[in-house]
Amino acid sequence: MSYGSIDGSGFGSRNPFGGPSRQGYQPLATQIDPNELQELFQETSANIFRINSNVTSLERTLRSLGTSNDTQELRDGLHATQQETNKTITTSTKAIKQLSEIVRGSSRQERLQLDRLNNQLSDAIQRYGAVQK
């Protein structure tokens, strides 16, 4: 009974345990189009900017609460901004996780770019948390 040649070439591009062989392995970053990767970085950066802008808007709106400018429209706008910010934070957090997986074996520049975005997102979320209190 023959199971293939001794050098393992009878297994094709798969290892004996069923997974792909290490031979043709490429990190995820090389499997994604570099333009798509940069687009994901830019979208995440834009989302972080949006979160920070919303926090600034919330700070301004909060100063009007309890004054003569306090209206139902103001409170509705405050609520809408909070909902948008929550969704943007969720989207950004998922994008950062996706980027982490993609960039794992990538260039130092892309890993640094991810690290910078991760820190910026963390700072923006902390600002948002402080405003919510």
TrEMBL record:
Q: Where would I find the Syntaxin N-terminal domain in this sequence?
A: 40-133
What GO CC annotations are associated with the protein?
membrane
Q: For the region Disordered, give the residue spans.
A: 1-33
Q: Which domain of life is it from?
A: Eukaryota
**Gene Ontology biological-process entries:** vesicle-mediated transport
Which Gene3D superfamilies does the record associate with it? 1.20.58.70
Q: Write down what this protein is called.
A: Syntaxin N-terminal domain-containing protein
Q: Which organism is it from?
A: Mauremys mutica (yellowpond turtle)
- What phylogenetic lineage does the species belong to? Eukaryota, Metazoa, Chordata, Craniata, Vertebrata
